[in-house]
Specification:
Elements (H helix, E strand, L loop, with lengths): L1 H13 L20 E2 L8 E2 L2 E4 L7 H4 L6 E10 L11 E5 L5 H10 L1 E3 L1 E3 L2 E3 L1 E12 L3 E9 L2
Parallel strand pairs: 1-9
Antiparallel strand pairs: 2-7, 3-6, 4-5, 4-9, 7-8, 9-10
Length: 150
């Protein structure tokens, strides 16, 4: 009986090691590839911030809504991990200053951002960006911009 147990122990020691576990598929990774901060950023996430937007010269007629002297546009876009707007991701979602849409879209293509962050790592982030316009003097329009996030 002892020789049978000894033989089983020797065979067990000589058996090949079990195969390694299969690699995790990308779907099993719980880190998202696109963070949605177009409404409220998830807990532990930080929305991108605008660090550069080119100076645009706009006449009052470009942004006036009838007789109103104040107007706005809101865009949705994806900011890459490198802090630039991804080509083809810009979409106008609301606002009445429609004649300024092309100028603002060209400006967004040149804009730079600090990227969104999730768990202290940069991540592609969907955001909403608001532009407010106000007539200034007789020919010029002043505008401000900000990333909308709560």
């Amino acid at each position: 009986m002892t020789s049978g147990l000894l033989l089983a122990a020797v065979l067990l020691l000589q058996a090949p090691p079990p195969p390694p576990p299969p690699p995790q598929s990308p779907a099993a990774d719980s880190t998202p590839t696109l963070l949605d901060c177009s409404g409220r950023c998830p807990k532990g996430a930080e929305a991108p911030r605008i660090t550069y937007f080119p100076q645009l010269e706009m006449m009052n007629a470009d942004v006036r809504g009838g007789t109103r002297m104040h107007n706005y546009l809101i865009f949705e876009a994806v900011v890459s991990e490198d802090g630039i707007i991804e080509q083809g991701s810009v979409r106008l979602t609301s606002g009445a200053a429609r004649s300024a849409e092309g100028d603002i879209e060209r400006g967004l293509a040149q804009a730079r951002f600090t990227p969104g962050r999730l768990n202290d790592a940069p991540i592609r982030t969907r955001v909403r960006i608001r532009f407010d316009f106000e007539a200034e003097g007789t020919n010029w329009t002043r505008y401000t911009y900000r990333v909308l996030s709560r």
